[in-house]
Amino acid sequence: MRELTSGALLDALRGVHWPARRMSGGTIQGGHRSRRVGASPEFMEYRPYQQGDDPGRIDWKLFGRTERVAVRLSHDDSSLRTMVLVDASASMGFPAETFAKWNCAAAIALGLAAVAHGDNDPVGIAIAAATPRLLPPRTRRGTVSDVLRALLDTTPAGSSPLAPLLAAARTSRRVALISDFLGDAEALHTVAREMLAGGTEVFAVHVIATEELEPGDAARVVIDPENPALRRPLGAAEVAAYRDSFGRWRRTLADAWRGAGAIFHEVTTADAPDRIVRRVTGSSGPPLRGS
Amino acid sequence: MSFLFPGFLAAAAGIAAAATLLHFIVTREPDLYRLPTARFAPDRAIQARAQALEPSDLLLLALRVALVLAVGAALARPIVSPPRRALMRIVLVDRSRGVASAREAADSARSVLGERDLLIVFDSAATIITAGAADSLGQLSRAERPGRLSTALVSALRTASRLRNQADSIELVVVSPLPGEAIDAATDSLRALWPAGIRLIRTAARSDSGAAPVTFQGDPDDPLRLAIPTAGARSGAGTTRLVRQLATAADSLWAADPGRVLVVWPATREVPAGWTPRPADTVGAVAAGTAVVVAPFVRTLSLRGGATAEAISPPRLVLARWVDGEPAAIEDPIGAGCIRTVTIDVPAAGDLVLEARFARFVAALTGPCGGPMDSAPLDEAARARLAGTFETSRAAAAGFPAPDQMPSPWARWLLLGAVLLAGAEQLVRRRIAR
User: Fold this and answer.
1) A93, A131, B320, B401: which has the highest count of C-beta atoms within 10 A?
2) Is B19 exposed, middle or buried (0-12, 13-18, 19+ CB in 10 A)?
3) Does B47 contact chain A (CB < 8 Å)?
4) Is there a shared CATH topology between the B85-207+376-399 domain and the B214-365 domain?
């Protein structure tokens, strides 16, 4: 959490932008190219006049030269309503000594929110904790501080589902989902697919602790923090099977999200949060695991 | 140091060895670890067992081993014996009423008593002097109780059993005038248990009979007064006092002095302490020793508790019994003297009190404490039987049976140490668990 409060992360992300991956349909003036036909002087193309078009947009000079009735189309800039959704279930509070997963997820969430806010996009955050928190997207000054405060006030616990919060963010045109996907992964994927079909940009960031990748071969019984009834031995004899099973699941998960059209990144707690944010936003930087 | 029951120590050593072995083979539940991706571990039964070739905790192991060994050693009852000697003496010193001079007896005992020899002084009971024998002999005084050699022999035999590991041979020395009353029916049998000769050192016997003038305190017309030949004085320096009412505190105080006899023989039907009223009946006779009186006595009191009280209150002595065996007169020791309680109604009519048999009966009741005294020395044959026909007076110590119980002062300290070790073990175990 020191990284969040020190300001080093925000300093490292200064100048980073998070452009829209496709034309935005937004109507609020912003920094993203909109699909909407606007009145900006930047010419895009001519289109034959159709019933219902504003006659005022007919290019009469063109009509004079070619006797074709066409309307002049130009690009318009709009803002992108962005919602950052962070998983704060008990599984994110791992390892129990450092909460490295949660710290990593919180840093990514803050970084994305700060970048979006820097692009004048309305940005909000939804935290799926034992008591879910929701800050609706806003552009006003102090939004990033509100996001930071919400993250600092949260301690990962319980097993609150993410899918309802994602469904509630349907009005946003861009959603960044930061989770370990160990909870309601199926329901989450279904909602995300619907949103993707509706034109929402969905960014999925899969956070993995290095201890989850390499749990070591010391004999012990592992317990699922969200399901204490799940107890299994994990020692030298089991660790290979564990790695194999975990790896298969990660590949399946990434394929499923990418196949649905989401931008999926797998990150670990060993990765620097600013590098992760740069990769997610499409800024330059070395490739991340699973990108 | 030796152990009375070494088997316990061997068992404790075995348990300690097993505990040590178990410490080296530690089986425990594997550590629990919260892992969010636990579901990807193969679903197998939890049978993890960690085997440690090193002791998991040396302090805990040491405490447990010490605890087991302490309990085992305590149950084994260790005894620390002083260095073994070639000869030990057990000196029996008679201080009963039959002794003419306690000082002479003490001097005689000193002449044979070595530094680590054992002293036993006896009258009707025997006292083993474990420490300060010289001081005890310096303060030896005559007790107005009959001597009982049987009691002294029993003590000597027990002591010899206890000393069997401390000496090669044991010699028994008896310092006594050896009066006839010191011998009873058990003496010969007990003597036979001593496997060697007994060295006898005779001291001077008391020359008087112990009988003293009786001071009578009661009605001058009391018929009982006529049966007391030496009576007449209402007060005086006599050592026997017969009172015809219940004893007062002053009477009891008087009776506590050495050689004094207080005879409480109530003239009225008052109930003395320790007695209880009973329906009056007539019994035909009463006997005190060899003195028997046959007369229609009316019996109104019984000894509280009957035969049980008689049995459980040693050294209470029944001096006279009714013809059916019930006590009629008892003697209780008080200080160095004694108090007698007589519950025989003296007939007010008739000439019974003038008869010689009644006078003998009263004389038996007013005699010295402990009953009639037989101070005549044993004859030659009896003394020879007592000394025995053995060639030596040194008995092989190993010939005495081992004692059933042997004091082991170390045992209690070992048990206390075991309790402390158990507490420490708990503390260490909790600390490790945390």
Assistant:
1) B320
2) middle
3) yes
4) yes
Of A87, A206, A220, which to mutate for an interface test with B (greatest number of B Cβ within 10 Å)? Answer: A220
Residues constituting chain B? 434
Tell me the average pLDDT across B298-306: 84
Contact state of A238 with B33 under an 8 Å Cβ cutoff: no
ipTM above 0.90, yes or no: no
> Minimal Cα–Cα distance from A175 to chain B, Å?
25
Percentage helix, strand, coil for chain A under 3-state DSSP, each rounded to 5: 35, 25, 40
- Give the gap in angstroms from C-alpha A245 to the nearest C-alpha of chain B: 6
Q: What is the pTM of this model?
A: 0.46
B42 touches chain A (CB under 8 A): yes
CA-based nearest residue in chain B for residue A91: B36
Under DSSP, the state recorded for B398 is G
A230 at interface of B, judged by CB pairs closer than 8 A: yes
Q: What is the pLDDT of residues B187-230, one digit of tens each?
A: 999 999 999 999 999 998 887 766 677 888 888 888 888 888 65
- Could you list the beta-strand ranges (E) of chain A: 32-34, 43-48, 70-74, 76-78, 82-87, 123-128, 133-138, 174-179, 201-208, 220-224, 227-234, 263-268
Residue of A nearest to B46 (CA): A233
Per cent of chain A over pLDDT 70 is 87
Residue B162 sits at φ, ψ, to 5 deg, of -70, -30
The whole-angstrom distance between B31's CA and the closest CA on chain A is 5
B38: nearest CB among A101, A222, A241 = A222
Using an 8 Å CB-CB cutoff, list chain A residues near B41. 222, 232-234, 238, 241-242, 245
Q: Would you call A212 and B34 a contact, using CB atoms and an 8 Å cutoff?
A: no
Residue entry with tokens 């990033």: A144
| Exposure b/e, A167-186, CB count within 10 A at least 16 = b | ebbeebbbbbbbbbbbbbbe
The 10s digit of each residue's pLDDT in A101-159 is: 999 999 999 999 999 999 889 999 999 998 899 999 998 999 999 999 999 999 999 98
CB A36 within 8 A of CB A76: yes
The answer to whether A223 faces chain B, any CB pair under 8 Å, is yes
Q: Which of A79-93, B187-201, B225-239, B413-427 has the lowest mean pLDDT?
A: B225-239
**Pick from A94, A215, A231: which is nearest to B46 by CB?**
A231
Which residues on chain A are in Cβ contact (under 8 Å) with B32? 220-223, 231
Report pLDDT for A3. 67
Q: CATH top-level class for B214-365?
A: alpha beta
Helix ranges, B36-186 (H): 58-76, 102-112, 133-138, 149-162
Architecture of domain B85-207+376-399: 3-Layer(aba) Sandwich (3.40)
Taking residues A6-27, what's their average pLDDT?
Answer: 77
Residue ranges matching CATH 3.40.50.410 in chain A: 2-22+79-281
| Domain boundaries of chain B, sorted by first residue | 2-77+409-433, 85-207+376-399, 214-365
The CATH number given to A2-22+79-281 is 3.40.50.410
